[in-house]
């Protein structure tokens, strides 16, 4: 099987193009209303698998596909949590998360998988948000009849971590903001090169500037 955190094997088995195909198929089924409580039932999973294999020319198993789904969900959660942590900002021009090196170092010590976002953002984050945000993915542990329960310890762990953490951060710079966007109420502590600390209230991540004074 595919070992989690094995980036080389992950790239060989999936790759960027097929990953995007998979995400597009998932979004299509979410838009159809096929996701209930953050889960697809067995019938829908079979449809997704058939579509993915037809479009990609590959021969994935349902287990491979569901493991990939859980990894994408964990990736979305880690990135969302990162953006909501004090000290981190977002630069939409370079598509990167901004923070002082000391802030990154401390955070990665606590959340090792966050290191993947130090040089670039989360690929297809907006699309992943359509799949994994609160409105479509609440109650990750509620496996009702017709929904397949997690089939591995890894999936159970991801489900447990996901409960109440399906928060998606809007990275768009919307001038018509109504003040309810969590991005406008986040507080950022910015440290200048001279060591001076400033608290920036109501700073949108999408327009965070780097203070080099």
Question: Helices, strands, pairings?
Answer:
Elements: H1 7-13, H2 15-31, H3 42-56, H4 62-83, E1 89-91, E2 96-98, H5 101-110, H6 125-132, H7 134-137, H8 153-162, E3 187-191, E4 197-201
Antiparallel strand pairs: 1-2, 3-4
Describe this structure in words.
- The chain is mostly helical and 213 residues long.
- The chain has one domain (7-173).
- It contains 8 helices and 4 strands.
- It has helices at 7-13, 15-31, 42-56, 62-83, 101-110, 125-132, 134-137, 153-162, and strands spanning 89-91, 96-98, 187-191, 197-201.
- The strands form 2 sheets. It has a two-stranded antiparallel sheet. Strands 3-4 form a two-stranded antiparallel sheet.
- The longest helix has 22 residues, at 62-83.
- The radius of gyration is 19 Å and the shape is globular.
How many strands, which pairing sense, and closed or not: the largest β-sheet? 2 strands, antiparallel
Q: What fraction, in percent, of the residue positions are helical?
A: 40-55%
Order of helices and strands: HHHHEEHHHHEE
Radius of gyration: 19 Å
Termini, distance in Å?
A: 51 Å
What's the pLDDT, averaged over the residues?
Answer: 74
Strand content: 5-15%
Task: Count up the helices.
Answer: 8
Please give a handful of descriptors for the protein shown.
single chain, 213 residues, 44% helix, globular, LIMYB, Myb/SANT-like domain-containing protein, Myb/SANT-like_dom
What is the gist of this entry?
The chain is mainly alpha-helical and 213 residues long. It has one domain. It has 8 helices and 4 strands; from the N terminus they run ααααββααααββ.
């Amino acid at each position: 099987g595919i070992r989690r955190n094995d980036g080389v094997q992950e790239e060989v088995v999936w790759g960027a193009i097929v990953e995007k195909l998979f995400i597009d198929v998932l979004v299509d089924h979410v838009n159809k209303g096929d996701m209930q409580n953050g889960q697809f039932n067995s019938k829908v999973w079979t449809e997704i698998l058939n579509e993915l294999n037809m479009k990609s020319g590959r021969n994935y198993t349902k287990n491979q596909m569901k493991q990939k789904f859980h990894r994408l969900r964990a990736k979305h959660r880690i990135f969302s949590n990162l953006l909501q942590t004090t000290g981190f900002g977002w630069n939409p021009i370079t598509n990167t998360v901004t923070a002082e090196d000391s802030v990154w170092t401390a955070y990665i010590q606590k959340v090792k998988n966050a290191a993947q976002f130090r040089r670039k953002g989360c690929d297809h984050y907006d699309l992943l948000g359509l799949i994994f945000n609160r409105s479509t993915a609440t109650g990750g542990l509620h496996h009702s009849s017709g929904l397949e329960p997690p089939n591995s310890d890894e999936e159970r762990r991801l489900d447990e971590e996901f409960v109440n953490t399906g928060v998606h951060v809007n990275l768009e710079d919307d001038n018509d903001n109504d003040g309810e966007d969590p991005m406008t109420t986040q507080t950022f502590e910015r440290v200048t090169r001279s060591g001076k600390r400033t608290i920036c209230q109501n700073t949108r991540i999408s327009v965070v500037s780097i203070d080099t004074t």
